[in-house]
Every structure is written in C-alpha cells, then in structure tokens.
Amino acid sequence: MKDKLLALKEEAIQKATKAQDMRAVQDVKVEYLGKKGPITEVLRGMGQLSAEERPLMGQLVNEVRNEIEEALTSKVNELEAKLLEDKLATETIDVTLPGRPVKAGSTHPLTQVVEQIEDIFLGMGFKIAEGPEVETDYFNFELLNLPKNHPARDMQDSFYITEDILLRTQTSPVQARAMQEMKGEVPVKIICPGKVFRRDDDDATHSHQFMQIEGLYIDRDISMSDLKGTLLTFAKEMFSDDQNIRLRPSFFPFTEPSVEVDISCILCSGKGCRVCKHTGWIEILGAGMVHPNVLEMSGYDSKTYTGFAFGMGVERIAMLKYGIDDIRHFYTNDARFLKQFQRM
Ligand code: 2U9
C-alpha cells in the first residue's frame, strides 16, 4: 500500500508539473484528491489495517496529499504569473499615440458678449450687481417713477404672475435694490446684467425674453459729461477705437434728461449704408440723468447727489458686433450657429 501511495504521488506531481492551463490543474486535483480518487480510496481502506499500521499509514497519506497540493498550488502560481506576463506583453500602451479628441462645449455667444461688456465696465470701476428675475410691481415699476396707471404697466405688455408680481421687464429693479441696500451711501457704481421679459411677438428683431445690461453711477457732481465719457469709452472698447457717439434727446420715466445714444456706423464708418439706413449712425442704447424722484424714493437726497444711468440690449450689441441678422439665432440653439463662437 505504501508503494502504491508513493507511486500515485509521483504520478500526480508529474501530471501537475506538466499541466498547461488551469483546467488541466483542476483535472489533476479531481483525479487524485477528489472524492472518487485513489487517495480517498486508501483512506477508506484504513479500517482494515492493524492498530499499529493505521497511524503510520495515516501520516503517509497526509504527507502524500500535502505534497500533491503543494505541487498543484505551485503550478497555479506559475500559470497565473505567466497569464499576467502575457497580458502585460500584449496590452502595452503606446503613450506616443495621439489621444482621442474630447468634444468640448463653449459658452453661449450672449454670455461671451455679456462678459466682454462686464470687463469694459469693470475696467472703469463699476461693480456687478444681480437680482431676482421674478419681481414685485414696487421694485420693477413704482421705484422707477412708473406710478400706477402708467401705460408701461399695462397687463398686456408684461408677464404678470399675480396682480403684484411679474417677470422683470428691465434690470432696473436690481439698481433700485442696490440703492436701498446702500442706504444713501455713495458712490453707487454698478452694472446689472440679466434676463428680462416682455410680452412681445418674436420676430427677427424682437424676443419676449432678452438680455439687458444697465448701469448706474450716483455720487456728488455726476454730470452728463461723465455719462458721455463713460459711453464713448465703452463704444471704443466694444467696437473700435475710432468710434464716435452722439446723444439725441429722448424720454424715459426714470431719467431726466434722457437720451438715445448712437455710435458711428460700424460698417461704413459714418459714410452711410444700408445698415445705418444712410444716416451714418446706429442706435445702441438709452441713457440719462437719474430722475430726482427715483433718487429720493430710494433714499438719496437729489439736491446733494446726482447720477447717470444707461441701459442696453445685449442681443442688439452682439448682432451689430458679429453681423447677425436675426435675434432668434440666440435662442434656437442651432449648433452651426453656436460653433462659430467656439473659443479655443
Ligand atoms: C435706476 C435709474 C435709472 C436705466 C435706463 C434706459 C435708459 C434704456 C433700454 C435700452 C434698450 C432698454 O433693452 S432696452 O429695451 N434702456 O433706454 N435704461 S436709462 O435707467 C435707470 C435704471 C435704474 C435706479
């Protein structure tokens, strides 16, 4: 029996050593150490041995089994190491290969124009203020010298949520809020970019939602010439250094006097063309000196302080700067349009 066991051991170890893959190792294990294998059979026959022989044979069976198991484990380790080696050899990464291009998005052209305008005014010492898009009638109209019954408050012109709450029709309420927070302190020198909403039929030049940037500068001795200098600097930096501006009298309830501001035509430099309707000028914004009522209502003594304010539609500025002929391009998200504004 002892010889038989030793012969089995040699046979099993030889087969384990020769195994080419995990499957073959498993087969050897099942063949020699499995329930129906020869070693288990020897163990079953132990009962027929004498009391002296039994412990010796038991010890030998254990040794044989351990040695076979060791041979199997060592084979498994060897095969695993080889598998890893093969994998590393076949899966090497060529770091010199060009990468796959990542499709990057880009900021919306309107956002880009807002940022350009912000940079220009930040350079002149303005700060940026923001406020809610859903406003009360009080901040949107009342504080801006548009009392009840004013035609601009017509239900047909604005998106009312309740009788007293609406989507802001301009960013001016942000300035009114800023003035109240400043509690009569000066200077108030802010620009307010943001979305505004008006009940309008959309066409090539009108949109029921658009972006505005308004500005406000209140201090002692602020005059119309400060306004003109500020807007000329803006026009030169936004369009070109040889830009000129002109102010035409106008009317807004929140400013007195009020003006409309033109820039010399960016296409024909003032000579006259189709874009400027042969006038040489293009209107870009409205402005004026803050109405004394507006100053007083938000806590500023109109005898001590004066201020200027202006407002512009961002789409209009962007359309002029980039020669865009339809405001709806900004809101229909045609990738061919948007890609032209992709920044590298
Ligand atoms: C306060 C006081 C005064 C803001 C101003 C305009 C003139 C103006 C329009 C331009 C084109 C709006 O987008 S648009 O339709 N805006 O003409 N806005 S002065 O005046 C203010 C604002 C806030 C407290």
Terminal Cα separation, in Å? Answer: 83 Å
Helix content: 40-55%
Under CATH, the topology of the largest domain can be stated as BirA Bifunctional Protein, domain 2
Structural class: alpha+beta
In which order are the strands of the major sheet placed?
Answer: 1-4-5-9-8-7-6
Helical run tally: 12
Bound molecules: ligand 2U9
Shape: elongated
Sequence-ordered SSE layout with sheet pairings:
Blueprint: H1 2-18, H2 22-33, H3 38-44, H4 53-90, H5 109-123, E1 127-128, E2 134-136, H6 137-140, E3 165-167, H7 172-182, E4 188-197, E5 209-219, H8 224-238, E6 245-252, E7 255-264, E8 281-290, H9 292-297, E9 306-313, H10 314-322, H11 329-332, H12 335-339
Helix pairs in contact: 1-2, 1-4, 2-4, 5-8, 5-10
The chain binds ligand 2U9.
Question: Can you put this structure into words, describing what you see?
Answer:
With 344 residues, the chain is of the alpha+beta class. It folds into two domains: 2-90; 109-341, Bira Bifunctional Protein, Domain 2 (BirA Bifunctional Protein, domain 2). Helices cover 42% and strands 19% of the residues. It is built from twelve helices and nine strands. The strands form two sheets. A seven-stranded mixed sheet has the order 1-4-5-9-8-7-6. The model has no long low-confidence stretch (mean pLDDT 93). The site of ligand 2U9 has 22 residues, from helix 7, strand 5, strand 8 and strand 9.
